[in-house]
Amino acid sequence: MAEPGLADVVARLRAAGSVFAEEEAALLLAAAPTAAELEETLGRRVAGEPLELVLGWVDLEGVRVALEASVFVPRRRSGLLVREAARLARSPAVVVDLCCGSGALGAALLARVGGLDLHAADVDPAAVRCARRNLGPTATVHRGDLFAALPRELAGRVGLVLANAPYVPTREIATMPPEARDHEPLVALDGGADGLDVHRRIAADAGAWLAPGGHLVLETSARQAARTAALVAAAGLAARVVRDADLDATVVVGTAR
Ligand SMILES: C[S@@+](CC[C@H](N)C(=O)[O-])C[C@H]1O[C@@H](n2cnc3c(N)ncnc32)[C@H](O)[C@@H]1O
């Protein structure tokens, strides 16, 4: 089978609606050693699978993170959460990446700050498997529901909790791009009626796990930020909102008094 050239691949991607057809074509061509493999990966992309899942990796803040089917694709905007966490992390410290998905946020944080005892946790077995692959021996990955996944002896000793938990309101999932709607699990997206069900639970329990002066860093949207911050403040933490216009990203930081 003759390998299609760059122009052919770009044309097929563009016809399928790709906005970054040239960049995607270059990545797909570089990743496929044979024409048959290119046909397979190009076919999946043209059918609507996210590029990152087709390639099997994504770059977050300069760190290459392996991905597998039905695991949430880390978003570029989560770089703000990583940067803010890196600013606040004081090593040595226990750090928890709640709702860790592929483990991307913890991996990117460890690339910036050494000496952290990282625990990551997720309820989804595929995410836990993927996070173990990405974090290897640098972290302990637990499976379970939010803080209940963690060893009890960490209660009151955590210096930093970071979480990109689901925050899409249920009724808005149907309007998300098909790449997310059709290829990412509902448990990774659905934040309940107002999108804040998981934030509510994390905020309510964070105080029991944080050490005095410890921080909670929660990704949210600009639209939901005031409500996420109010939940964090209602749980007794000092709350502030951090925004990055370039990344179009918003996080809420809560600090234990
Ligand atoms: C938006 S994804 C983010 C994944 C990862 N933090 C990232 O930014 O790439 C949310 C993750 O939360 C997990 N999750 C949802 N509800 C959870 C719960 N109750 N306990 C633990 N993990 C949960 C999902 O399985 C999913 O991996």
TrEMBL record:
Pfam families, alphabetized: MTS
UniProt domain Methyltransferase small: residue ranges: 93-168
Transmembrane stretches, start-end: none
BP GO annotations: methylation
MF terms (GO), sorted A to Z: methyltransferase activity
Domain of life: Bacteria
Keywords, comma-separated and alphabetical: Methyltransferase, Transferase
Presence of the UniProt keyword Transferase in the record: yes
PANTHER family in UniProt: HEMK METHYLTRANSFERASE, MTRF1L RELEASE FACTOR GLUTAMINE METHYLTRANSFERASE
Protein name, per record: Release factor glutamine methyltransferase
Native species: Georgenia muralis
